[in-house]
Amino acid sequence: MVNPANLADNQASSQPGTVDMMVNMGPQHPATHGVFRMELRVDGEQILDLVPHVGYLHRGSEKLCEHELYSQIITLFDRFDYISNFNNELVIVAAVEKLMGVEAPPRAELIRMIMCEFNRIASHMLFYGTFAIDMGAITPVLYNFRDREKIQALFESVSGARMMHNYFRVGGIKEDVGDDFVARALALCDDLERGIDETDRLLTVNEIFVERTVGIGVISGEDALDWGLSGPVLRASGVPYDVRVDEPYSHYDEMDFGVPVGSAGDCWDRFYLRILEARESISIIRQAIALMEPGDTMAQIRRIARPPAGEVYAHCENPRGDLGVYIVSDGGERPYRLKVRPPSFCNLQALRDLTVGHYIADVVVILGTLDIVLGEVDR
Amino acid sequence: MLNGLKGLGVTLRGALRSKVTAEYPKEHLPIDNRFMGFPALTWDAARDEPYCTGCIVCVRYCPTQCMSAQMQDNPKFAEGVSHRKKIIETFEINLGRCILCGICVDVCNFDAIEMSHEHERSERLRNANRVDLPTLLDMGRQYQAEVGWKQSKPNAASPNERAAAKAAVEATKAEETPENPETQAADDTDIPEKSGGDAA
Q1: Does residue B180 lie within any of the structural domains?
Q2: Chain B residues close to A178, C-beta within 8 Å
Q3: Average pLDDT of the residues of chain A
């Protein structure tokens, strides 16, 4: 754990006569949710400094995109944030559609929305479970995986895959949902509501849980905005910024849903906000299902998307925050340049500010509430 | 105290609930009809040959370049048994490289490739997942039997059936199937069948 080479460098110590210790956390640490390494400088149990090291999962996806057709890029986007694949597919599809001036038929848009919201719930469920594990509570993850499994079964019946769907297309979706989809989705909504309530009962006001999370990793709304945080992490600090409301895409402007906002900006707020958000997602799904009408699921466009020369930026609300894609097109069937604004990566920047002054055990809690996915951080 | 009892209550309910997991190698969860397993080649039982003509459109659109294929002149066309001038000679898919995206199925004009339900392929040799034409056809036949597969794209039908389908649907540019699969492969701006309209 201790790197002796670093010990010698630590001339500046907090107390006379003692030497600060350098602790490497990760990249194979289970609490880092992937291959992420933190270099902690600690005084006893207290964190003096933290240097995050990213890049262990770097696959050069943005560069790879330059060599792929737009239809093939969707498969790469599945693999950025591998917990919420549909939301990732939506943003690239939305960007290319914006550049081409194409609109997907209403039914396709609604199915996309429903899938994205289910995926948001699935992602948040994974968060509740792993976050509880970070603090030593083993049970909730089993309950949450049980419910997440049901969502994935629905995904399988719609897209044919549980995780890497490749279901959205530029101008629509791959194929219409099955006949039993509406009944299944509505039944699943009831199931998930029960599951979320269960997690809520198990964790939210649990004494140990509250002790471990309240007042830990506080960030103010202004600081959060300065760091460029987005998603639940930003909203927990009291900033009601949600792309779905502020710059509505799909049919979100027709939906009636609230944007939960926290007040303290601590770990408990960031956790509870996600519970509230999942409930809002269920309400969105129900409204979207009510709006669904039979119709086309694919706009009439050429099979090979060939957007005109130009550039476009599109962003959507991912479970983790504001996911943006910037495409420069030279008029060909492949993008000239593609840049992703990953919410996890931007949220990770605040990690040092959040952790300094807390104890080693709080690092995993704070990192847990940022809910990073390394596939997206490193790309 | 009260909280403790509540907790025990949750535990008790958990113990009485029916189990939600399956013990994997012994039990298999049901697979959905739409499940996308490894790609397989379909078999035209009516003409006793594969649907695949080796036009390599799937090879060209595969994001991972996991396939290779070669076509040959169809001897059955000379005999008058089949309407396919060309037929697949060799087809190899490196299933270890395949990412199960289904793009090959999307782009195929002949319904010749499908995502089968095959998903358990752990092998001891590195190259054992490079499967050849007979294996792919076997996987395809198994899949076809499993789901009661029917061809859905009119292009895959014989000329007579195609003419009937053509009369049924309004004749558009998209409906015209090039006789030579090679030109079909080169034409990458064609319109999807179901759109049935002009390029937007």
Answers
A1: yes
A2: 34
A3: 86
